[in-house]
Task: structure prediction
Amino acid sequence: MTLNQALHLAEHKLVAANIEDASFEAEWLLCHVLQISKAGLYSNPERALRSAEVRKLQHLVWRRLHHEPMAYILECCQFYGIDFYVDGRVLIPRPETELLVEEAIQFARHDFPLGRQPAIADIGTGSGAIAVSLALALPQAVIYATDISPSALQVARTNCERHKVDGRITLLCGNLLQPLPKPVDMIVANLPYVRSCDLSTLSQEITRFEPTTALAGGEDGLGMIRCLLNQLQGRLYPGGCLLLEVGQGQAEAVRSLANNYLPQANTKSIADLGGIDRAIKVML
Result:
């Protein structure tokens, strides 16, 4: 089987299974199997594949036909322009979460002059995407990353080591803010916020493969956010900032919660490029 034939066969199977972006995904899978770039894919279309390469491609296509996310198959996901290792132990980082990173970087650069070391906590770090992105953008920052899942922290450690920031990020296992050794200047959290009644409506890629504990936010989707706010006392320095990602339509409810727990704080919603409120910023 030639490279060109393998590409068309993979695409045909993905199209028949109604997989979106079938052509693009077929290219990705074949590039992954052969460890070549997309340019290399088309530079030698008559190259013959070895039998082991054909078998590996068939297996990866089979996994995708069973709705396993591409990020898990390739063990790679790009977030904030950075490649991260991911597998089924962690939620796949979403593009909308990049808004949290952008806001955190702006706050740190504006409120902390050069030479001052802001302390930042990434709560529910999962793959470590937020913590690593912040460490790379803010080399002066001290960063803590917490997660209740030891297996998720293993993935986060892999990414810290891959991007050579493992000496600057302290990984802590525990429930939300509880593992933090001292107060911090900024808390960034993308916590589970899917309502219980909405879990079954998610795609098979999500419900069958991504960790439910990283998605389920309780009856109204705000259970974990309430828990974090309840733990906040004494964890954030005066003048500090809390950044929370929220689901579509949850912004006002989260702002109300934040105002109840922190009546002295200033809260505001932050919209993404589509005009959807995706984050809440709480300033003490």
Observations:
- Residues 3-66 form one domain.
- The first strand starts at residue 77 and ends at 79.
